[in-house]
Specification:
The complex is a heterodimer of chains A (265) and B (273). With 265 residues, chain A is an alpha/beta fold. Chain A has a domain at 5-77 and 162-263: Rossmann fold, CATH 3.40.50.300. Chain A is built from nine helices and ten strands. Chain A has helices at residues 45-52, 93-105, 114-123, 125-130, 146-158, 176-193, 204-210, 248-257, 259-263, and strands spanning 5-16, 19-30, 34-39, 60-65, 68-69, 78-81, 164-168, 196-200, 213-219, 232-239. A six-stranded mixed β-sheet of chain A has the order 6-7-8-3-9-10, sandwiched between helices. Chain A has a four-stranded antiparallel β-sheet with strand order 2-1-4-5, with helices on one face. In chain A, helix 5 packs parallel to helix 6 (176-193). In chain A, 41% of the residues are buried. By secondary structure, chain B is an all-alpha fold. Chain B has helices at residues 10-38, 48-60, 70-102, 104-117, 126-133, 137-162, 165-173, 178-215, 221-228, 234-262. In chain B, helix 3 (70-102) packs across helix 4 (104-117), helix 3 crosses helix 9 and helix 6 packs antiparallel against helix 8. The chains are: A alpha/beta (265), B mainly alpha (273). Chains A and B meet through strand 6 and helix 2 of A and helix 7 and helix 8 of B. Chain B: Keywords: Cell membrane, Membrane, Transmembrane, Transmembrane helix, Transport. Chain B: It comes from Roseibium polysiphoniae. Chain B: It is found in: Cell membrane. Chain B: This is ABC transporter permease.
Chain lengths: 265, 273
Amino acid sequence: MTHETKLSVQNLFMSYDGAPILERVSLDVSEGSFCTIVGASGCGKSTFLRLLLSQERASRGKILLDGTPLPEEPTPDRGIVFQRYSVFPHLTVAENLILANEFEASPITGRLFGSARKEALCEIEPLLERIGLNQAANRYPAQLSGGMQQRLAIAQALIKRPKVLLLDEPFGALDPGIRADMHELLHDLWRELNMTIFMVTHDIHEAFKLGTRLLVFDKVRHDPQAPEAYGATITYDLPIKANDRGDADLVALASGEKPNTAADS
Amino acid sequence: MRIINLRPGRLTSLALGIVPFAGVIIAYAVASHYRRLENPADKLLPSLEKMGEAFWRMAFVPDRRSGDLLLWLDTFDSLMRLGVGMAVASLLAITLGIAIGFIPHVRSSLAPFLATFSLIPPITILPILFISFGLGEVSKIALIVIGTAPVMIRYTAQSVLDIPREMIIKAETLGASVWQMITRLVLPQVLPKVISCLRLSLVPAWIFLISAEAIASTSGLGYRIFLVRRYLAMDVILTYVVWITLLAFVLDRLLLALSKRAFSWNHLERDSL
């Protein structure tokens, strides 16, 4: 491992009302990794992401970011893109993007006026261009297509320059063609900003194409009498080299080995 | 084609909208006509002309005793009470509703109390209000507030809870404080719902207003109706009922127009009634 450890997960347990979801999850992730997370439905992928976001607190275990425990609530150092409801429907595209700026500049009203607002709107011009929404700057999210909305959501999540970006099935609702465009955008942004990315996905091809590291969540222990008795953990942790990406054999291997993981992709 | 997929054009829409109104007016005119055939002095179903005369008399002929134009005076007084009452109720709905919906500790402390309080039949509080605030404006406005605010607060709090958690989390990751989330995220998302709720609450608000005016008042639309009831003046009563309905309708449409104008984003995806 050439880079230093960005995020360290140590013996994490998570249960809801006594039903374990995750157990014994340990993981060290170096800076600049792109971890893709796959697994069957209900095996705790999204729960894991929520724990990384501090949206929920682990029952046991620690998560360290740069060597210090995660804050107890979501903070700007970790950006998030959800599958839905990521952008604010009452704000136009441009307003969505200057919002973080407004929060920082104006603690009382949370709003910029006049020249300060114009300046903020100017600053996001290149970003709008980058995500191809400069023509749609004054439209509301409801007037955008699904792909445009997710491009906006990604751009908005990157405004605060988070060192860690979390993506919860961000492209799950998009058409395959649009998905490929989004992959390219996300990949380029990741390269440019040197972020550490965690992306939950149902699509194993996507996981191999984008990731530098593939994490498979599954249950290792199984009680047929009580299917809920045990939680899931990381069963496969595969490094993906650049030339492996899109390698059909590898995809087949991984999906063949773990039929569960591809079952609902 | 299935009937759910058939959409009327503009003109058809208008015509279809008019039909029920025309039906009721014609039915009334016919009934009134036959009643007056039997007894030309019938007071129960006065003719449309007579109602028109009553309207003219109340609106444009100064009252013999006080010299006031009664309809406008009544309308002004009633709308004043209704307006102040609903403004106070809306303000309570926004402040308490957001506090309850957004901050778990406030929710734990106020939600059960509010749920209980909102079940008190408001009209039973009216005597208490009259005793404590006297027979003036305060008790009438208070009745409207007490009658409508609890439901509006609960509805607003629920609307805040219905905001997808994802958006709140996203705002946190963008560095928003609680106050900023309230002003930039919660308030704008909830205001259109407060307006919808206000439109629905106007119905009970009118009931409380008319009741309070009927019991103790010297002006107002409700006062007038219950005053002329003693003389069986159906022409005035019916005119006032139509007038009140018209006022309520206009208020409702104005609020809808306000919502569509101020919160256009909220009306992009759905038809609104």
